[in-house]
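Today's session is about reading a structure prediction critically. Students often jump straight to the picture, but the first step is always the sequence itself: look for stretches that repeat, for charged clusters, for runs of hydrophobic residues. Only then move on to the predicted structure, which in these notes is written as discrete structure tokens rather than atom positions. Here is the chain we will use throughout the hour.
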Amino acid sequence: MRITRLSIPLITAILMLLNSCSEPASTIGSVQLSITLRNVGELSKSSSINLQSLFIEMSKGINIIHDTIPLNGNSEVLVTQNYVDMSEGDWTLIVESRDQLDEVIHADSTEFTVIADQTVDVSLSLVSKYSMLIANFLNIADNVSRCELVVGDFIVADTTFTPRDELDFNLSLEYDYLTVGGPYTIRLNAYGEYEEVEYLFYTGDTTITVMAGIDQSYEVDLEWVGPFGALRGELFIEVTIGATGSITLNGNFPLPGDVIRDIDGNLYRTVQIGEQVWMAENLKVTHYRDSTSITYVSSDNDWRYLTSEAYCLYEVGTYGALYNGYAVADSRNIAPLGWHVPSDAEWKVLEMYLGMSQSDADGHGDRGTNEGSKLAGNPALWNDGSLENDPEFASSGFNALPGGYRSDGTGNYYSPHVSGRFWSTPEGGEASAFCREMLYDRSTINRESNNPKHGFAVRCVKD
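Below is the predicted structure for this chain, in token form.
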């Protein structure tokens, strides 16, 4: 975690008594006050606080000397002032820097004694009343393209960038002029584009109090509020607040509970349907859970003669990968940790939750009424037909897609935009397994047993 520390500016006042030592101790002396103002408001940022003046007050009883020195926006100046007729005795010195609104930025005070024919060194440490807030968005989620930092009701930092999903991509937003005190509400908003419309994807806030010289830690929950269908990535937030010393706001925002990651780092939306939680996208992993590679086969002729595990790609960006039954049954496991390829019985639980009767669920061929339409999604990918014209099309959030399949007989790809086929796990030591198929021209779900040479899509269900 990065902590920003405030550079504490130093004002050194050197008071030198200039009058002759032959005068009695009660005589009036002449005092020169030299003030060096360095790095005022330097808060590890590119710009400095716009200082306009330095205010000096020296008092001894009812004797008060006021002086205002113009700084004209400089943060590092050398000022030399001469003050005469300062009598011997104890004095109080107050020094303040002020901004363009005549607000006090830094302040300190001390006491010194004027003694005939002696030089007195007086040091003051002036601390800015402002802190700096840096919001560092780490591991920006897929499709996030704009981030805001909001203090109270005001957007104080806003940046637009190219969406990226690399794990080492960082983005920082900075804001100074946070006054010591509070409370303040700090909000972080992350926006992204989905189907050519900008949406607020993530938002989170916390209440802070800036305390001089004290480190404080806060935890912030970042909530996903984006539209359904937009891919939710992993978003970590680290917020640093620097004040006198440092005040730190820490946030750790792990992968949202409704998104999972496979061993390759691919992210998948999920959906809860009844008591089950399913992947809402087709699996596209290329390694087993133990990190060994799944065999990739592109040749149609090679595919048709396979008797061992393999996968292939038709349009991976849209439909994920197609796996043969040997890969699905492989003990090295193609499912992400905490998930598994569903059994035939688990498919039946899903179908019956959507309205299918037990007798229909146990049957073969086309079964049910409109459960296939409920499971399907993205009508633009399907050929026009009864499936997408059903009024409950896509109502479950399962989002089954028409990625077709790869044939066991020819090794060719068949039926893109026409059908989507999904494996279940083989049971009872059999090599074949039941699959589920949705077709564009019917709203039902087909259930049939297939040999493991076919290439079908895979949806996983949570353990």
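Discussion point for the tutorial: The radius of gyration is 35 Å.
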